[in-house]
């Protein structure tokens, strides 16, 4: 018998009708002019009698006050019957809840996971046809759970499928632990990051026991990024353990993918796993468009049916934007944060993972790398020669708003960046880091402000007049600049779109696409991107990387921590420079650097 967690589609949920609302508090808060004047006004004929003097009681009517020595009339039996019925209903309900709780300890009930989906355990004599988590019995007859991915499924699975597998896995694992607790009286409620799930049966072990069909002779997957060439690839075996990062994401930004890629590489190296990259459905195209090949793992990629999104103790795991909470969520933070430190110092181990990935993977393609080398030499060379300082400024606008409360609907003013840069210059150059005896002549150096922004209008602002553009190889232009260069063909039709205001998700996905209005965005198929649109996306991605590459070699950086690019620049500076020497400055409120936010 095989059990798999399936969504219970037959359950019904109570839904609140927003149009029907009765509130006693609202009635009690009515003004006195409404409550008293409407119901107790002497002008209302039907209520006037309530305010007039009562006539003397009629001697023919019975008195409301019982006479001395006589018993009061017995109370009505209706209220007594109601109380008995209400008490009986309460007892029945209590008994039903107790029986249901006892029943749940011996059955597989429908449960709710963190996503709010409802599941029920479905028994079957054969494996399900879809990729899902299943419950099996090992050779010793013990209940276990594993992940079944049919061989006809392509790799990678869709993000929704990976999320569904992880939700099902949580349910099966929790159910088995609850059953163990009911039988043995003890079971862990939650597992730590590196605590092995004793009820999980790895796919390879399930195949060896005949519980899952054996994997076919797997040919090399088409979507995997070719690693650096090795001298001898013959005789290579499949990796004992591996981590594959799938670059598919619904996020239009480049930065999140870059951070997760570096973190995944650092985690793979720490856990001694082979590392692979898949760019099959990456919105920005191919990995090789931007970077040189990644380092070789020295072993072959595993069969596609062996690569699962969870649990983390699986031999071959998949990490993507869809499973970032499972891989880098609460348990990851609890494992890698240093509880003995305060503020950003708690993040040193997480920073180290990112730095490992940055050093191994951030190698731009040859022509872009040559441009960065020439550009940084021309900008920073004279500064170093004359003892000055370079201050990089990164301004992110568009659809990314600050954390600081008063600017959450707007952006950090540009003069704040300049003020912080001025303070850095005074501290490190004029005061020489506290040494005020420095020669006056040496204070007048060739120090420079180097600017990178997603908003082209930032470069032309009065506050940034003294800055130097980080790179001019690929420039995001404004509509005004494009019209001046190309000429506007039709004065009545807006045919040219620029990057005013910065980078926006919808603008990125609509590049080169037949989009006439905002409603057309929902009709776009991101799996089918025209060649012209893909070229435009590649230019945007390369511009972003060139900005980071040049700015990351400045002596200091001023930016907003709410921006992913700002956090990336801290990784490029390094831990000692960024936080030990204070060369990384955040101007977005009193917030610390964070690795991956999810």
From TrEMBL:
It comes from the Eukaryota. GO terms for biological process: protein N-linked glycosylation. Residues 50-69, 212-231 are annotated as: Disordered. The chain crosses the membrane at residues 80-99. The keyword Transmembrane helix applies. PANTHER family: ALPHA- 1,6 -FUCOSYLTRANSFERASE (PTHR13132), ALPHA-(1,6)-FUCOSYLTRANSFERASE (PTHR13132:SF29). This is Glycosyltransferase family 23 protein. One of its GO terms (molecular function) is alpha-(1->6)-fucosyltransferase activity. Keywords: Membrane, Transmembrane, Transmembrane helix.
């Amino acid at each position: 018998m095989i059990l798999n967690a399936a969504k219970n589609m037959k359950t019904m949920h109570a839904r609140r009708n927003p149009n029907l609302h009765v509130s006693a508090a609202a009635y009690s808060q009515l003004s006195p002019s409404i409550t008293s004047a409407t119901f107790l006004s002497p002008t209302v004929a039907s209520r006037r009698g309530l305010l007039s003097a009562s006539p003397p009681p009629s001697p023919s009517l019975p008195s409301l006050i019982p006479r001395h020595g006589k018993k009061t009339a017995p109370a009505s039996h209706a209220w007594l019957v109601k109380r008995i019925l209400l008490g009986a209903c309460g007892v029945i309900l209590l008994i039903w809840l107790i029986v249901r709780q006892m029943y749940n300890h011996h059955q597989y009930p429908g449960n709710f996971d963190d996503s709010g989906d409802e599941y029920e355990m479905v028994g079957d004599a054969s494996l399900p046809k879809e990729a899902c988590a299943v419950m099996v019995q090992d050779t010793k007859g013990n209940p276990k759970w594993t992940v079944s991915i049919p061989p006809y499924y392509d790799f990678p699975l869709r993000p929704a499928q990976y999320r569904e597998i992880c939700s099902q896995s949580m349910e099966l694992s929790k159910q088995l632990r609850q059953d163990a607790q009911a039988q043995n009286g003890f079971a862990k409620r939650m597992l730590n990051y590196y605590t092995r799930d004793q009820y999980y049966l790895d796919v390879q072990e399930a195949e060896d026991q005949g519980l899952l069909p054996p994997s076919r002779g797997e040919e090399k997957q088409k979507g995997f990024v070719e690693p650096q060439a090795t001298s001898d690839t013959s005789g290579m075996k499949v990796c004992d353990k591996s981590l594959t990062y799938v670059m598919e994401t619904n996020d239009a930004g480049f930065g999140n993918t870059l951070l997760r890629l570096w973190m995944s590489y650092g985690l793979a190296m720490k856990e001694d796993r082979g590392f692979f990259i898949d760019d099959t459905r990456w919105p920005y195209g191919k990995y090789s468009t931007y970077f040189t090949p990644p380092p070789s793992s020295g072993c072959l990629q595993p069969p596609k049916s062996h690569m699962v999104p969870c649990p983390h103790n699986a031999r071959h795991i998949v990490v993507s934007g869809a499973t970032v909470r499972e891989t880098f969520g609460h348990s990851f933070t609890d494992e890698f944060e240093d509880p003995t430190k305060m503020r950003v110092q708690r993040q040193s181990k997480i920073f180290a993972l990112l730095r490992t990935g940055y050093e191994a993977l951030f190698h731009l393609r040859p022509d872009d790398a040559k441009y960065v080398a020439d550009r940084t030499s021309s900008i920073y060379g004279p500064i170093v020669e004359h003892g000055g300082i370079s201050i990089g400024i990164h301004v992110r606008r568009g659809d990314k708003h600050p954390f600081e409360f008063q600017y959450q609907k707007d952006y950090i003013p540009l003069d704040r960046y300049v003020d912080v840069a001025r303070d850095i210059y005074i501290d490190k150059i004029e005061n020489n880091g506290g040494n005020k005896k420095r020669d006056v002549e040496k204070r007048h150096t060739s120090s420079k402000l180097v600017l990178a922004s997603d908003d082209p209008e930032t470069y032309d602002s009065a506050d940034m007049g003294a800055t130097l553009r980080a790179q001019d190889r690929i420039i995001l232009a404004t509509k005004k600049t494009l019209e001046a260069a190309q000429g506007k063909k039709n004065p009545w039709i807006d045919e040219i779109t620029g990057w005013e205001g910065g980078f926006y998700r919808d603008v990125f996905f609509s590049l080169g696409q037949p989009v006439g209005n905002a409603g057309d965005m929902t009709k776009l198929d991101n799996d089918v991107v025209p060649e012209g649109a893909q070229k435009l996306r590649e230019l945007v991605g390369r511009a972003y990387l060139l900005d980071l590459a040049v700015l990351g070699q400045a002596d200091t950086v001023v930016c907003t921590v709410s921006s992913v690019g700002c956090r990336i620049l801290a990784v490029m500076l390094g831990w000692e420079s960024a936080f030990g020497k204070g060369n990384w400055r955040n101007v977005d409120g009193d917030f610390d650097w964070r690795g991956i936010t999810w």
